[in-house]
Write a structure and sequence with these properties.
The chain is an alpha/beta fold. It contains 15 helices and twelve strands.
């Protein structure tokens, strides 16, 4: 299961958001820096309304959604790359995740201390990014130095790593994260072995007050200038999107039934939970896609990577399915939703038999034929 780490400065709402995401109280949320030391870990279900529709069509006994693992990592501070605020320990935790959610405080509250003494979300983002970049510069330089002797002896891999390192270092030195460095596919594969922190995909979560969340439900029309600043920075410097959340509201929603939560959101003028948007955006950020299986026993969402072909998708269920793959009966969810059954999809020519080279699409409903 892929892991996403929640990072940010102290007292920006990370632990409150983690508790809301995982519908738990694993993470202590307190008004002082470093109330989280050891990372909290939870599994989060990916909201997908298509599952309920498939359950209805099949009369399934239960639903099993897709899931990702979320890690609540303690707040970083300026100087973390040099060990400030237990920074080396926290950076090591970031190294273990596949993607990053950076929580950015966009709300004013005199009762909640900010380590920098004022609210400036772009400055906060740059503090975190700078610490990741500084740590990466040290990592790359060590890699280059370690390969010097082998490269002089003619080792091709060592030479390639030095060449790449000498390309990465000046880019990092100008304050740009490794994730935005233009590289060939071969270079990007080689860079992945460097395990760079700033190479991880990042999603920004703009944390606002309850009264600022509604009724405007998109960044483009959002009244809070701090949120607009985050969105503009995320797009221009990282090429990534921003999700607006109110960690406090999400914490309250996590304690309500789905029906009560929906009613509460409607009262705020908001159509969807910020947590739901954040989970779906994180799922996409990780390059994940969903296909479905359904029947009387269960309706289930299976997680694959974008570009995976049918045998690999079958292997997510069981390795025997991939090893003995013959074909996959496939329908698009939209067709099944419209027509109402696999039999009607077959009659309409919407149920296809796909082979080993078929690239599975998000929303495919599949049944595999295999023989081992």
């Amino acid at each position: 299961m892929l892991r996403t780490g929640i990072v940010g400065l102290p007292n920006v709402g990370k632990s409150t958001l983690f508790n809301a995401l995982t519908r738990s109280r694993k993470a202590e949320a307190a008004n002082f820096p470093f109330c989280t030391i050891e990372p909290n870990v939870g599994v989060v279900s990916v909201p997908d309304p298509r599952l309920q529709r498939l359950k209805e069509l099949a009369g399934s006994e239960k639903i099993i959604p897709a899931a990702i693992e979320v890690v609540d990592i303690a707040g970083l501070v300026k100087g973390a790359s040099e060990g400030e605020g237990l920074g080396n320990q926290f950076l090591a935790h970031i190294r273990e995740v596949d993607a990053i959610i950076q929580v950015v405080r966009c709300f004013e509250n005199e009762d909640i201390h900010h380590v920098a003494g004022s609210i400036d979300p772009v400055r906060d983002i740059e503090i975190i990014t700078t610490e990741l970049i500084l740590a990466d510069m040290a990592t790359v330089q060590k890699r280059v130095d370690r390969n010097a002797k082998s490269a002089r002896s003619g080792d091709k891999i060592a030479k390639a790593e030095i060449t790449l390192g000498e390309k990465i270092l000046p880019y990092l030195n100008q304050g740009s994260p490794a994730s935005t460095l233009p590289l060939s596919e071969d270079e990007r594969r080689l860079m992945s072995s460097f395990c760079l922190l700033s190479a991880k995909p990042v999603l920004f979560a703009a944390n606002v007050r309850e009264e600022e969340l509604a009724p405007l439900d998109s960044v483009e029309h959002f009244a809070n200038p701090k949120v607009r600043a985050v969105e503009e920075y995320a797009q221009s410097r990282h090429g990534n999107s921003t999700v607006i959340i109110s960690a406090q509201i999400e914490s309250e929603l996590s304690e309500l039934s789905p029906e009560d939560a929906k009613e509460y959101l409607t009262g705020l003028g908001v159509t969807d939970s910020g947590v739901g948007k954040l989970i779906r955006a994180t799922y996409a950020l990780l390059g994940l896609r969903t296909y479905f299986t359904y029947g009387p026993k269960e309706t289930r969402a299976w997680t694959i990577h974008a570009g995976d072909k049918a045998p690999a998708a079958a292997g997510v269920i069981h390795s025997d399915f991939e090893r003995g793959f013959i074909a996959a009966e496939t329908m698009a969810f939209a067709d099944l939703d419209t027509l109402g059954s696999s039999a009607k999809c077959r009659e309409a020519g919407k149920l296809r038999i796909e082979g080993k080279e078929y690239e599975v699409k998000d929303g495919d409903v599949m049944e595999f034929r295999f023989n081992v």
